[in-house]
Amino acid sequence: MFIDRLNHVWRIAGTGFSFACFFGGGLVLAVTIFPAIALMMRDQERRVRATQNVIRHSFRGFVAMLETLGILNLTVTGAETLRDGKGRLVIANHPTLLDVVFLMALMPRVQCIVKSDLWRHPYLGGVVRWAGYIRNDLEPEALLQACRESIAAGKNLIIFPEGTRSRPGEPLHFRRGFANIAMLAEVETQLVVISCRPIMLSKGDPWWKVPPRKADIRMKIGARLRAAETFEHQARSLAARHLVRQLQQYFTEQLAHG
After folding, report:
1. Strands 215-225, 134-135: parallel, antiparallel or unpaired by DSSP?
2. Among 169, 157, 127, 155, which residue's Cα sits nearest to residue 29?
3. Nearest to residue 45, comparing CAs of 139, 135, 154?
4. pLDDT given at position 231
5. Where are the beta strands (DSSP E) in the chain?
6. Pair 94, 160: CB distance under 8 Å
7. Can you list the residues of the chain whose pLDDT is less than 50?
8. Where do the H-state alpha helices sit in 85-235?
9. Which of 229, 227, 223 is CA-nearest to residue 244?
10. Which of 56, 126, 135, 153 is the least crowded, having the fewest Cβ atoms under 10 Å away?
11. Which tens digit of pLDDT belongs to each residue from 198-210?
12. What angle do CA 78, 149, 228 make, to 5 degrees?
């Protein structure tokens, strides 16, 4: 019992230390490395690629820190599929705060749709612009065009169809936005199923709410599909609804069979 309590306290302290390193390191990069890349590389595509590479390697280091400190174990099935893929729409469920970190650590040339608030952030605003990420407050046609262009350039676009983190114990609820992008962009869609047991950093949880034992995070790189071809004989609005139902059922079944 004493050992278990001591281990719990250690993981709380380790989690706090890790997040301090994450935000502190991010601040250092935001005011040193990323501006230097922007100054030295005038070509936009080279600048975007270099910035994204720094972010990817930083996230890989952060994940390695979490594993070394005993905060979590990360197991990935089919990681080579993510590393080798390009120009795909990557759809994943969203149980924890760190899901995007895990995905970006695994994949090269990642594109994200980020909250517009980040564009106005005093430190992170420059980073998301230099990385070429897409802001979420664009007009629908402009957003779709930005997604199409990114995927056509070989970038992998990550979307969480729930729009926010899952709430433990509640059924998945996918929004239709990702389905419209999948249908209209006519791209290959890669499904990624993420589970976390016991749950940590879920919706509404503060960082210090650490589970009684180390979290086991499993990522399964699952099926691939081309939604536009699967539903090509249906009206787009109807096809999008069918795609939402199909993928919501797929993720629910995958998570149930763990």
Report:
1. unpaired
2. 127
3. 154
4. 66
5. 72-77, 89-92, 110-114, 134-135, 156-159, 189-197, 215-225
6. yes
7. none
8. 99-106, 116-119, 124-130, 140-152, 177-185, 227-230
9. 227
10. 153
11. 999 998 888 888 9
12. 65
Q: For all residues of the chain together, what is the average pLDDT?
A: 88
**Domain boundaries of the chain, sorted by first residue:** 2-256
Tokens 């380790």 belong to 14
Angle in degrees, CA 115, 168, 13, rounded to 5: 75
User: Helix 99-106 crosses helix 44-68 at what angle (to 10 degrees)?
Assistant: 120
Yes or no: say if 51 and 130 are a contact pair by the CB < 8 Å rule. Answer: yes
Per DSSP, which regions of 12-120 are E strands?
72-77, 89-92, 110-114
Q: What is the rounded distance in angstroms from the CA atom of residue 77 to the CA atom of residue 66?
A: 19
Helix (H, G, I), strand (E, B) or coil at 215: strand
Cα→Cα distances 151→140, 157, 169, Å: 17, 7, 34
Position 228 scores a pLDDT of 65
Q: Rounded to a whole number, what is the largest CA-CA distance in the chain? A: 63
**Would you say the C-alpha torsion 156, 161, 163, 164 has a positive or negative sign?**
negative
- CATH number, span 2-256: 3.40.1130
Nearest-angstrom CA–CA distance, 255 and 93: 10
Q: Which of 156, 159, 152, 158 is nearest to 185 (CA)?
A: 152
In this predicted structure, what is the pLDDT of residue 145? 87
Report the C-alpha gap between 39 and 35 in whole angstroms.
Answer: 6
Where do we find the tokens 């390191």?
25
Residue 159 pairs in a beta bridge with 91
C-alpha span between 181 and 138 (Å, rounded): 14
* Placement of tokens 């030295």 in the chain: 40
Phi, psi dihedrals of residue 123, rounded to the nearest 5° = -110, -45
